[in-house]
Amino acid sequence: MANYTAADVKALRDKSGAGMMDCKKALDESNGDVEKALEFLRVQGLKGVAKREGRTTSNGLVVARVNGGTGYLLELACETDFVAKAEKFVALAEKLADAIVAAAATDLDSALAAPLDGRTVAEVINDEAAIMGEKVELRRVAVVNDVAVDAYLHRTSKDLPPQVGVLVAFSGADAATAHDVAVHIAAFSPSYLTREDVPAEIVETERRVAEETARNEGKPEAALTKIVEGRVTGYFKENVLVDQDYAKDNKQSVGKVLESAGIKVSQFVRFRVGA
Question: What are the boundaries of the region Involved in Mg(2+) ion dislocation from EF-Tu (predicted)?
Answer without folding.
Answer: 80-83
